[in-house]
Amino acid sequence: MKILITGGTGFIGKPLRKDLVANDHEVTILTRAKKESSERLRFIQWDWNNHGNLTELVSGVDVVINLTGESVVNKPWSEKQKEILFKTRINPTREIVKAINNASIKPKKLISASAIGIYGNTLDAKITEGSPLGSDFLANLCKQWEEEALNAETDVTILRIGIVLGKKGGALERMAAPFRMFFGGPLGSGNQWMSWIGIHDLIGLINLTLQNKNVKGIINATSPNPVTNKEFSDTLGKVLNRPSFMPVPAIALKIMFGEMADLLLTGQRVYPEKAISYGYKFKYSYLEDALERYLHESLREKIAVGRI
Fold first, then answer.
1. What is the pLDDT of residues 174-211, one digit of tens each?
2. Residues 195/164, Cβ–Cβ less than 8 Å
3. Helix, strand or coil for residue 148?
4. Mean pLDDT across 228-254
5. Cβ atoms of 212 and 152 closer than 8 Å
6. Is 230 left (phi over 0), alpha (psi -120 to 50) or beta?
């Protein structure tokens, strides 16, 4: 297949494009940085703030994968940062959809990222793809993001992605840091749910949508076994052979992060009902297995290159 990816140089995009190329797909990445292309991996320098017409690039492509967007945890949510979070999702998605709709040969499918934050703070409720949506800042951001994608005149798959665990970068690296220094523990009460997914399973779900034309609509991209923040902290401590006894008070997080602290102190108990109904078999259904894979693999790589 010919596949065009936005956000293909990030935490998810890098291993995804490697997997796609390994499976003989022809991949084109839109990126702000100038990068050298190869036979099956082409980089096109592109600036969403000063863009040209995408239609020619999109025409004739089989699938567009839209992963673009500033990380929601990079900085506290000031009004300026909120604007950046919107602009880096809504504007590129709108341009991609416009290009798809204007293309002489339309892509067969658009796969667009979203997040489980769309459900808001749901306490202990079990969340599936048909559950009600939230009304806080992150939920409204995701709703507008999805609405733009659904305007595409082709089949659309929207992946509502949970906390992605991988060996390099991402949330796990940040969460593991205090544990390595013997300061790890739950956040706030620790009772909030954490719905996570291993990077290999996220890529697996993307491959499922590529291989099966019937896979479309909203899909929760999470493991079938979410855990509470305390369970996550205890398991992380166990895998790292570190204690998990230093809880971070909610008030401290609110002082440090402001409104963004709600993202850390609330959560969603999300179940991937549609992925399972499509027959997807998770490589990492249980948290301990995923942490063992990604943390130990990352440590071995650091030792190999002399960083430890």
1. 899 999 999 999 999 999 999 999 999 999 999 999 99
2. no
3. helix
4. 95
5. no
6. alpha
The vertex-47 CA angle with 43 and 51, nearest 5°, equals 110
The span from the first CA to the last CA of the chain, in angstroms, equals 41
- Burial bucket for residue 112 (CB in 10 Å: 0-12, 13-18, 19+): buried
Q: Which phi and psi (to 5°) does residue 254 adopt?
A: -70, -35
Domains of the chain: 2-165+195-224+268-286 (3.40.50.720)
Helices assigned H by DSSP within the chain: 13-22, 55-58, 79-102, 137-149, 170-180, 199-211, 229-240, 250-257, 261-265, 273-277, 287-304
Structure tokens at 25: 């797909």
Half-sphere exposure of 191 (CA within 13 A, CB side): 6
Predicted TM-score (pTM) of this structure: 0.94
